[in-house]
Amino acid sequence: MNLTESLLLWYSQNKRPLPWRETLDPYKIWLSEVILQQTRVSQGMDYYHRFLAAFPDVRSLAAADEQEVLKLWQGLGYYSRARNMHHAAKEVVEKHNGIFPQTAEGLKKLKGIGDYTAAAIASICFDESTAVLDGNVARVISRLYAVETAVDTNKGRELLTDLAVQLLGNHHPGTFNQATMELGALVCTPKSPSCDTCPLAFSCEAFKRNTVTDFPVKTPKKAATVRHLNYLVISFIQNQEEFILMRKRTGNDIWKNLYDFPCIETEAAADIEQLLEKCNERGLFGGFPFTVKQVSEEYIHQLSHRRLLARFIRIAVEGTPEGDENITAVALHHIARLPLPRLIDLYLANVLLEEKFR
Q1: Which has fewest Cβ within 10 Å: 47, 70, 272, 302?
Q2: Which residues contact 295 (CB under 8 A, 6 or more apart)?
Q3: 33 assigned to active site
Q4: pLDDT 10s digits, 299-343
Q5: Catalytic pick among 5, 22, 33, 242
Q6: 176 and 45, same domain (yes or no)
């Protein structure tokens, strides 16, 4: 029995009963692949079911409001995935009459669909003979052949893809691709791999050399950029109801089109008095008297290449500040309806939704 046959036999006996494995619908396969990028299956499962309940097909997703999509995505992070997915759904409807392209090359023309996702959809749904290369597959292949080239370089990705194509052979490509990914997820794991139960151990070069944990080779990580965020949680009372100034993030920075509070970013931990002066200069208080109610402890929020150090300064204004084009007043009990970054949602859960400002 060769490598590919051993892998497929193992998969038939050990694969997890996941809902997206029970369909060949490209919309559902695509949805699962986008959600599971940078996300564990255990976490992504609920999101997959919620998205299907809200948007059962590509036309319903295309017709949705972006804010609704982002709110449903809240907590998964990497929000560009949700924005790109929404954009791609519109492309499928508007340019392809609601029918997904049936080749990897055609799929890659859609917003946000790269080599991996295109290969997964094309092989699983349309039986195209193309190999996938995600983190799990890269780990399996690099250990199997003891690949010394870093997997996160173009040269490394090309080499690993060529090796995966060689393994693919004439077997059903969708099944092979899923089997390789499953082996990486369940057996050939990043830490403490179960080599004693691996169906490919008999031919694994890293296992023979006792160097399994040395692979895959990766380029050294750069130190995370530190950003100091000083959030102004500005509240006021209007018609006996409490409002908070919320900012819609624009541009190409993190959390585009999500909502947070007005923020002043500084190079280091800032002096509160200086921050308040900057707020007055920006007109955030509308010229009305204000009181600083509370300054939070520092919240640490780690992103892939950024380390956010955030403080929340609660300020009560005795008037009705107007905000600007990106800052708007939202009733306190409506804030939870907005798409929010995890950092803001955590602060709300810890403080604002448990007690009133005043």
Answers
A1: 302
A2: 272, 311, 312, 313, 314
A3: yes
A4: 999 887 889 999 999 999 998 887 677 899 999 889 989 999 999
A5: 33
A6: yes
Element (H, E) at 239: none
The Cα–Cα gap between 320 and 233 comes to 14
Whether 249 is in a domain gets the answer yes
Q: Domain containing 96 — which CATH number?
A: 1.10.340.30
Same domain, 206 and 239: no
Q: Give residues with Cβ within 8 angstroms of 23, minimum separation 6.
A: 29
- Phi then psi for residue 132, to 5 deg, are -95, 155
Q: What is the mean pLDDT of the chain?
A: 92
Structure tokens at 245: 């100034």
Same domain, 288 and 331: yes
pTM over 0.90: no
For residues 276 and 207, membership in a common domain is answered with no
148 and 35, same structural domain? yes
**The pair of three-digit structure tokens given for residue 132, joined into one six-digit string:** 């996938």
Rounded Cα distance between 192 and 175, Å, is 26
Q: Which two tokens stand for residue 47?
A: 């999101």
3-state secondary structure of 11: helix
358 occurs within a structural domain: no
- Tell me the Ramachandran region of residue 109: left when phi exceeds 0, alpha when psi lies from -120 to 50, beta otherwise: alpha
Q: Which of 214, 233, 253 is the last residue of a domain?
A: 214
Asked if 306 and 224 count as a contact pair (C-beta separation under 8 A), the reply is yes
Distance, in Å, from the CA atom of 221 to the CA atom of 219, rounded to the nearest integer, reads: 6
* Residue range of the domain that includes 237: 225-352
Q: How many domains does the chain have?
A: 2
- The predicted structure's pLDDT at residue 250: 86
The answer to whether residue 358 scores a pLDDT higher than 50 is: no
Q: What is the pLDDT of residues 179-208, one digit of tens each?
A: 999 999 999 999 999 999 999 999 999 999
As a whole-number percent, the residues of the chain with pLDDT over 90 amount to: 74
Asked if residue 316 lies in contact with residue 358, where contact means CB atoms within 8 angstroms, the answer is yes
Residue-level pLDDT at 41: 93
CA angle 246, 76, 53 (to 5 degrees): 100
Domain shared by 12 and 117, yes or no: yes
Question: Are residues 191 and 137 both part of a single domain?
Answer: yes
CB atoms within 10 A of CB 202: 11
In a domain, 219, yes or no: no
